[in-house]
Backbone:
């Protein structure tokens, strides 16, 4: 759910328009991961971590959330 929230917020921040397909996809993915976690707890957790890393690091339609955070946050002075 956190990955979907980050993806939704990043898309909204970059385009200025909310993309409501992301919450629907997040709900479907959450239900899938819940089912996987009930069958294989370690696999469900591992897949969730992989999804989070992918969402944070991969640029979809612009910058990734990590790229956006690096640009917005103040840089250390040298």
Residues:
């Amino acid at each position: 759910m956190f990955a979907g929230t980050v993806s939704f917020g990043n898309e909204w921040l970059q385009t200025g328009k909310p993309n409501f397909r992301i919450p629907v996809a997040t709900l479907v993915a959450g239900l899938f991961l819940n089912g996987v976690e009930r069958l294989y707890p370690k696999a469900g957790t591992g897949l969730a971590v992989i999804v989070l890393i992918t969402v944070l690091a991969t640029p979809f339609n612009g910058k990734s959330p990590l790229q956006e955070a690096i640009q917005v946050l103040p840089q250390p002075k040298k």
